Amino acid sequence: MTKRDLDPNQILCHEFEYAAQTAIQANEDRVRLFHYYLATAGTMIAASVLADFTENMYVKVFSLAMGALAILGFISVLKLVKLRTAWKDSVLAMCQIKKYYIENCDGLKEAFRWREGTAPAVRKKWSIAFLMTVIIAILSSASAGGAIYFWGSATGKAWSGWDMIIGSIWFCTQVIVWWGLGYLEDKKGEKEREGGFEGHIIEKEQEENEKRTNKK
User: Is the pTM of this model over 0.90?
Assistant: First the structure.
């Protein structure tokens, strides 16, 4: 295949479509993860209605199950961050292609709202990912508090107020982790973009130096 047979526009179109598909896949995985946790929490609620809490053994088992649900919620929050990051990476890949066309085609600058500097942040407040995280954090923190409460009831060592304290700490921890990891991912992306821009400048300078050398 010769250089004339290569169509840059076709290659970029395929690359753009691939990035768009990966962004869609990340969103779909995020929705499936959210629904899975809701279904699991719903099953736990149904089990609490049917459970026999007169037996301490059953109460202990239920307490451990709620603790496991709390841990699953924390893991789900971490996965939501990774899926949001994957979505952002796909969006940035599309923005890079947009940038190429903006630089090489006049009149396209105003056509695109999302560009490398304006794409939504990973930790954006009130986004769908943020609301999903808050809902999972609420259910997970309620599970953590419930685990403490039922375990204390089963062992006869109920700690007054500790279920509320543990639940509140668990909720705040998950929200802070989501925001903190999102902040780190956003900063990482900014550094990569700055490095890519600097690398682009260096390449341009090298090309100009080569042209000057050839002229001499």
Answer: no
